[in-house]
Each structure stands twice: as C-alpha cells, then as structure tokens.
Design goal:
The protein has helices at residues 22-25, 27-44, 51-73. With 77 residues, the protein is an all-alpha fold. The chain starts with 21 loop residues before the first helix and ends with a helix.
Length: 77
C-alpha cells in the first residue's frame, strides 16, 4: 500500500490539507488502519467478478475501513 508514504513527517505543516494533526500524534494507529484497509482490499479481490460485485465489495470496504479513519483523521467542513 502506497498511502503511508503520502504522510511523511515533513508534511505536518504547509499546503492546503484536510489532514488533522492526529495523524502524526497517532501515527502507529493511522498506519495500522491503512495496512488493514490494504489487506482487506487484497482479500476482497477474488469476490469482484463484474461492476456490480465491485460496487458491493467497495461499499463494504468503505464501511469497514474508510469511515472510521476519516472520522478520526480528517478535518470536517
């Protein structure tokens, strides 16, 4: 998974971002969540047979992984 590389230590400040400082304060939790998402996505690959199954699998991955991480680590409008 490439996502952890998008949050290096030198990206804490500067530029427009919706990332909360909690990412760097809880880096181990953040990276563990990304790793789990990657593992879950890899495990789900065999379930995808067409666009319909992709949509169903993707919705499940989002519910299981993305929502919790975004609630904790993304600034809300």
């Amino acid at each position: 998974m490439q996502a952890p590389a998008l949050f290096p230590e030198n990206s804490k400040k500067g530029g427009k971002t919706e990332a909360l400082p909690a990412i760097w304060k809880n880096k181990a939790d953040f990276e563990a969540r990304l790793a789990k998402f990657g593992a879950d996505a890899k495990a789900a690959q065999d379930e995808v047979k067409d666009l319909a199954t992709f949509k169903a699998v993707w919705a499940g991955l989002v519910r299981k992984n993305c929502t919790g991480c975004h609630e904790k680590y993304v600034q809300k409008d």
